Amino acid sequence: MATLVEPPNGIRPRGKQYYSMWETVFEVDSKYVPIKPIGRGAYGVVCSSINRETNEKVAIKKINNVLENKIDALRTLRELKLLRHIRHENVIALKDVMLPVHRTSFKDVYLVYELMDTDLHQIIKSTQPLSNDHCKYFIFQLLRGLNYLHSANILHRDLKPGNLLVNANCDLKICDFGLARTSRGNEQFMTEYVVTRWYRAPELLLCCDNYGTSIDVWSVGCIFAEILGRKPIFPGTECLNQLKLIISVLGSQNDTDLKFIDNPKARRYIKTLPYARGVHLSHLYPHADPLAIDLLLRMLVFDPTKEN
């Protein structure tokens, strides 16, 4: 639980309160009353809170020492710039950004989001049964939110179960826009890390210079399969192993399907892999609705130029 504490320097600025959770001190606007910590990551700590002015429950994310690391600062800036313009029921809402007491010497950033109950990763690894209707509703909402982002020329670039928040009503919202970018056509983005490996599209694994919305669609396919099977479909240990796992399921690709690879070394590597017949997804997921398998086949396409 959150504990009200004195300011670290003993001086309480007007309009601020200090709370301690998980050995972390939160400096929050007085209208917020933190309840308890609900998550921790490399960035810092997230706590649930109540806005006393509206009686609304929210999540406060404290990003520690945000300016010490250029990459962390850039990710935070991207999230702020994008979420302040995005309004969709399947995308997490940024409610507030708390202004620091000293704008020239602050270290931490506090972002306030709508509060959700859990994430899809926790649901998948739980023992809770997931029906066909659950699966349909989750994927419908994910595609609906993604269609909105893509229509606004936004690539999320890090879709995975842990970045999909869910509440008790099974409402789903896309979160974590630290790697997202705006795109207006085929642009070269490959100067930085994108997409957690297990959800990474072939064109990213093969170091293609240009990519587009297909990378997010591939990630959705991997998430879809993970809901159906309750485990990742391509749990690669490193990039080359990831490619081998993909080929083992989708089967070896012909020369036409490899034309999109603009890196000659990458194309040669794919051709050296042992022949694989592939596995039909209906065999991997025998209890899945045939329509779900059909949709999944349209998402997990090796050649992004052939996406259905």
List keywords for this structure.
3-stranded antiparallel β-sheet, 5-stranded antiparallel β-sheet, alpha+beta, single chain, 22% strand, 9 helices, 308 residues
Could you walk me through the main structural features you see in this protein, from its secondary elements to its overall organization?
- By secondary structure, this protein is an alpha+beta fold.
- It is 31% helix and 22% strand.
- The protein has 9 helices and 15 strands.
- Strands 4-5-6-8-7 form a 5-stranded antiparallel sheet, covered by helices on one side. Strands 1-2-3 form a 3-stranded antiparallel sheet, with no helix packed on it.
- A hairpin with a 2-residue loop joins strand 4 and strand 5.
- The longest helix is centred in the middle third of the chain and has 20 residues.
- The chain is elongated.
- The model has no long low-confidence stretch (mean pLDDT 91).
- InterPro entries: Kinase-like_dom_sf, MAPK, Prot_kinase_dom, Protein_kinase_ATP_BS, Ser/Thr_kinase_AS.
- Belongs to the protein kinase superfamily. CMGC Ser/Thr protein kinase family. MAP kinase subfamily.
- GO terms for molecular function: ATP binding; MAP kinase activity.
